[in-house]
Specification:
This protein is an alpha+beta fold. It is 50% helix and 20% strand. It is elongated and about 185 Å long.
Length: 419
């Protein structure tokens, strides 16, 4: 019996050896077939290229008026609500709209100014700038209506015209005297020849010479008078130009100061709106978060409204990944996305593709931002998921496709290098 048990049949040995070898080869084949991807995981936020506009409170206070209801359609620039302030919203809006029609409109009667811009408005912190604007508008209207320099300008223009007439008249006289001077000179030459021949007496010659000298003196005096008139005319024209420049400068100065007051008031109104008015930055459908009724409190930086755009553009995902292994991420890599709102086991996952990665990590979280494009919300189970703005979930970025065998070999090499 002992000899029988101690002797192992040779066929059993061969069968066992073959079975071990076959099992080992089968395991190698299975580990080579089974894929075990190398991934970098992170949290993902899915939005559209035109994401939701979250509207936050820029000031702490009580909501005075709400102009929309949940689900209302709004356009870009529409006012959604206003925070209570010493200024009345309606009065501020009235002044803002009135300022839009004021550009280069100075032709308004002084008694109409109080109708277009009433003094009894509740503008709170804007009151001082509104008063400055109002006073400057009055100055412009008074300057345009009274125009004190225009009277002086008109008188100066009349003097210039009169002086031009004097100069013109004297020049005509000079022409006439010049002709007389030529005749007197010719007569004097003729008398000189006749005197030398004894035809006329010395007395006649002296009379001819005296007439010539008198005409020449009149001619020179007239020239001097014309020169004086022209100097006076030049001075009048210079003074007239000075008055014109002074009028332009005065009007321009008043209007420039007025324009500055208009722009200052517009800027202050814009600042007031940014601080106290909730304005929609896009067109879409509004959602109410913290405020449903009047007289509710809001805090600064608190999200009060959200506006969902009407049309959804292409979807994009933002994945936050740690610095570790982030160097493996490149564009074009596949991304497996599992949404929190749709259990992976029941709905499956959707696919995305890496479009880019930020150059540097966020200094606070020390995480990189990876941008993922998503073509469809159809899962690997064939289920189409509805799109909602700001869907969140987990993302696995497939950096390398490895088999189980390759992973085992990498692990063995790592152990060998450490040893």
């Amino acid at each position: 019996m002992r000899e029988f048990l101690g002797t192992v049949p040779s066929n059993s040995v061969r069968f066992g050896t073959i079975a071990v070898i076959i099992t080992f080869i089968a395991l190698l084949i299975i580990t080579a077939i089974i894929q075990y991807n190398d991934v970098v995981t992170g949290r993902i936020l899915i939005t559209s290229q035109n994401p939701i506009a979250n509207i936050k409170a820029a000031n702490t206070g009580i909501v005075e008026e709400i102009f929309v209801k949940n689900g209302d359609s709004v356009s870009r620039g529409d006012h959604l609500a206003v925070i209570r302030t010493p200024a009345k919203y309606e009065d501020v809006l009235f002044v803002k709209n009135s300022l839009e029609t004021i550009e280069n409109n100075y032709n308004i009667r002084l008694d109409s100014l109080g109708i277009k811009f009433p003094a009894q408005l509740s503008l709170g912190t804007l009151q001082e700038d509104y008063l400055k604007f109002y006073l400057q508008y009055q100055n412009v209207i008074l300057t345009d209506s009274i125009r004190p320099l225009e009277v002086e300008e008109s008188n100066m223009a009349n003097q210039i015209d009169l002086q031009k007439d004097f100069v013109s008249t004297k020049k005509n006289q000079l022409v006439q005297v010049g002709r007389q001077l030529t005749i007197s000179r010719d007569n004097l030459e003729r008398s000189k020849k006749l005197l030398s021949k004894g035809v006329i007496s010395q007395k006649d010659y002296d009379e001819s010479r005296n007439r010539y000298y008198q005409t020449q003196e009149s001619y020179q005096a007239l020239k001097s008078e014309i020169s004086s008139y022209e100097i006076e005319l030049s001075k009048l024209q210079s003074d007239f130009t000075g008055i014109e420049l002074q009028k332009i400068k005065s009007t321009s100065s008043y209007r420039e100061i007025f324009d500055q007051s208009v722009e200052s008031l517009k800027s202050k109104i814009l600042d007031w709106e940014k601080t106290n008015v909730f304005e929609s930055p896009i067109s879409g459908r509004v959602s109410l978060f913290k405020v449903w009724n009047r007289y509710q409190n809001v805090k600064v930086d608190e999200t009060v409204f959200a506006v969902v755009p009407f049309e959804i553009e292409s979807m994009v995902g933002h994945v936050q990944v740690p610095v570790r292994n982030s160097g493996k991420i490149t564009t074009g890599q596949d991304v497996i996305i599992k949404l929190d709102t749709y259990p992976f086991e029941q709905y499956g996952y959707i696919n995305g593709r890496v479009e880019g990665i930020s150059s540097i990590p966020d200094q606070q979280s020390m995480e990189y931002s990876v941008f993922v494009s998503i073509d469809s919300l159809t899962t690997n189970y064939g289920k189409s998921l509805p799109f909602n703005q700001e869907m969140i979930g987990s993302a696995q970025i497939v950096t390398e496709r490895l088999s189980l065998l390759e992973r085992l070999l990498y692990a063995a090499r790592k152990l060998f290098e450490r040893g």
